[in-house]
Amino acid sequence: MPNTQENLSQVATLAGGCFWCVESDLAKLPGVVRVVSGYTGGTEPQPDYERVSSGRTGHYEAVQVFFDPRRISYRQVLDVFLRHIDPTDPGGQFADRGRQYRPAVFYHTEAQKREAEAALAGLTASGTFDEPLAVAVLPFAFFQDAEDYHQNYAKTHKLQYETYRRFSGRDRFLEQVWGPKAQPAATSGTSGDWRRFAKPDAATLRQRLAPLAYDVTQKEKTEPPFENAYWDSKAEGLYVDVVSGEPLFSSRDKFDSGTGWPSFTKPLVPENIVTREDKRFFSTRTEVRSRHGDSHLGHVFTDGPPPSGLRYCMNSAALRFVPKDDLESAGYGEFGKDFL
């Protein structure tokens, strides 16, 4: 029966060809609670694998992705999904041909519909593909869990899955488009695609970001001291731009400044930091912004500890924390060596 236990505001229903592969790829995302393979989009009231595989039921092989919105957004799930399929193929996916393998996003709310349309528009604008995108955006109506042996297939049938995946052509296509070892994590606010990030318009950002994050990053507001997410955090990992996902600071350079805001002695990736003179509020300070996201992050002062003598005083609302154990799966594996 359709799963009704999770809040629909925290589920994405996506079709991208073989559900074994889509399930396996999206289950790796930090913030994803679980992924279920199944059938959706057709009229057959009791679909099963045999009938759906015939292509006559109208159903798609699909997955439902249940996620924690405090750690990953719907848009971020979408962006990763689109980078793990061929979004230009209307006749199936890779070796799997037929109506049941077409790519689609099934939205549960009007907000999800807008996010899906924005994600596709952003991918089109990126110029990554010469052909038009063929991912349908359709209203969600029904989802039937697939048979038990299809669930978590990549682990329960490891050899069969790896053999299928190797010869399906999926990974070869992804490598050709996105480069070797293309395992992007959630983009547009996470990792993987921050070097390609194109800032969306204000309306999209306002919808995507929490109100405080929008006010801080886009309106240069300042959050309250001692009442923010990271001011006293000692967890190991990276701090990235909440808008673009570009890596900014490491926990290894974080210190307790006594100010009530997260403070760092230096940036992790200096080229991702932009500074400029700020003469607001009857004083002259040095504002810190992100290069790719153009987000207001905070200010840098010269009263920090040695050896730099600098204090990068940041707003937690402008940052997203990636724990060290999640760096590889989140697309920041290149920084993992810093925590060995």
Notes on the protein architecture:
The chain has 9 helices and 17 strands. It has 340 residues and is an alpha+beta fold. Helix 3 packs across helix 4 (110-126). The protein has 2 domains: 8-186, Peptide methionine sulphoxide reductase MsrA (Peptide Methionine Sulfoxide Reductase, Chain A, 2-Layer Sandwich); 201-339, Peptide methionine sulfoxide reductase (Metal Binding Protein, Guanine Nucleotide Exchange Factor, Chain A), CATH 2.170.150. It has a 6-stranded mixed sheet with strand order 7-6-1-3-2-8. It has a 6-stranded antiparallel sheet with strand order 11-12-16-15-14-13. A 3-stranded antiparallel sheet has the order 10-9-17, with no helix packed on it. This is Peptide methionine sulfoxide reductase MsrA. Belongs to the MsrA Met sulfoxide reductase family. Its EC number is 1.8.4.11.
